[in-house]
Design goal:
This protein is mostly helical and about 350 residues long. About 70% of the residues lie in helices and about 0% in strands. The protein has helices at about 1-20, 30-60, 70-80, 90-115, 125-150, 160-195, 215-230, 235-270, 280-290, 290-295, 305-340; strands at about 200-205, 210. The chain has a two-stranded antiparallel ribbon with strand order 1-2. This is Dynein heavy chain tail domain-containing protein. It comes from Rotaria magnacalcarata. Belongs to the dynein heavy chain family. One of its GO terms (cellular component) is axonemal dynein complex.
């Protein structure tokens, strides 16, 4: 459509630039003929633009996204062309009717069907995911409604008044929905603080094994604090404090996890005969880690009290075990294996009478 209109316009422009006529000659009627032809051609162009607008609006409104906001933007562009016979009211009424039927009502249906189990992004926790879902749904109907309210011709329109009532009702439901889940999240902050006040480590009594005392719910709340700050959603001071500490907490968890893993690997690789020799070092490491059983928690600022001594003792223990293993293997086991391949005494096969 636009290619044909552009071609017609370029042709008229070329004819005008190459056309020769005398404006001061009253007998020269070429300009009048050209002007009448130009006026007729421009009317045809306006008519074609009108048809293209009607087709484009129909395509936009009946597309899978059927977003009224996009249709309004297209309508505004055509209004800026200032076509004489173009009346945007008819198209505007079609858009608001479509908005009421295909956007407001569908959002209302989706809300009623999915509010208990909404579609949440993969990396979003459930509570904040629901809040962001409600905001996305509200944004779908808000953008077009704001543009409608800017239109003076829709001020006293009966359809628009009905749309306003429905919009306010749906917006109120989304606000209450967000408020309830936001309040629920606010109440969980005290629970997560209590979890973070627990000791770093716990010990299983039967095998005396140490385990990290870290609840995965802490990660959920830290992620929620991060998302709340990103989307500028209100958050108490405690949430901002956790947000500032999240890197330190996660780093401490990974560091403690590596520490216990290295300690377990050393014990597993140690030669059975070397247990008594490294018992003193093992006791020192265990005593250092025992600080995490009573004195330190995830909110403590002095976690280096457990990390630095334990890492140093584990490093010493690793070197000591390596030396012991080397001595046992190269000074004892290998010589014994080598000697075992030689015959020390050879007895004759003949029997002794």
């Amino acid at each position: 459509g636009f290619e044909q209109i552009t071609s017609i316009y370029n042709k008229i422009q070329t004819e005008f630039l190459t056309f020769k006529f005398n404006l001061f000659d009253p007998n020269d009627t070429q300009f009048d003929l050209f002007y009448n032809q130009l006026n007729h051609t421009l009317c045809d162009i306006d008519q074609k633009l009108y048809q293209i607008l009607d087709k484009d609006l129909h395509r936009i409104l009946h597309s899978p996204s059927h977003h009224s906001f996009n249709a309004l933007k297209l309508l505004a562009r055509y209004e800026n062309l200032h076509i004489k016979f173009f009346d945007s009211t008819e198209f505007l009424i079609d858009i608001i009717q479509w908005y009421e039927k295909e956007e407001l009502e569908k959002v209302k249906i989706i809300y009623n069907q999915c509010r208990t189990t909404p579609t949440i992004e993969r990396d979003h926790p459930p509570t904040i995911g629901r809040i962001l879902w409600a905001r996305r749904m509200y944004k779908r109907i808000r953008m077009a409604y704001v543009e409608f309210m800017k239109r003076v011709e829709l001020k006293d329109n009966l359809i628009m008044k009905k749309i306003t009532e429905n919009f306010l009702m749906i917006a109120n439901e989304f606000s209450i929905y967000e408020l309830l889940y936001h309040q629920h999240w606010y109440n969980t902050l005290s629970d997560v603080v209590n979890l973070m006040c627990n000791p770093l480590l716990v010990r299983q009594n039967l095998i005396r094994q140490l385990y990290i005392n870290y609840d995965p719910f802490i990660d959920v709340v830290l992620r929620e604090c991060e998302l709340l700050a990103r989307y500028s959603i209100a958050m108490p001071d405690l949430g901002y404090k956790l947000l500032l500490d999240r890197t330190r907490i996660r780093f401490s968890y990974e560091r403690l996890k590596k520490l216990l893993k290295d300690f377990s690997i050393l014990l597993a690789k140690a030669h059975p005969t070397s247990y008594e020799l490294v018992e003193k070092v093992m006791t020192q490491v265990d005593s250092t880690l025992a600080i995490g059983l009573n004195n330190l928690n995830w909110l403590s600022k002095n976690l280096d009290e457990i990390f630095l001594p334990a890492e140093e003792n584990i490093s010493l223990m690793s070197d000591f075990l390596s030396q012991i293993s080397s001595l046992i293997i190269h000074r004892i086991e290998e010589p014994i294996n080598e000697v075992s391949r030689f015959e020390i005494l050879e007895f004759p096969d003949d029997s002794i009478d």
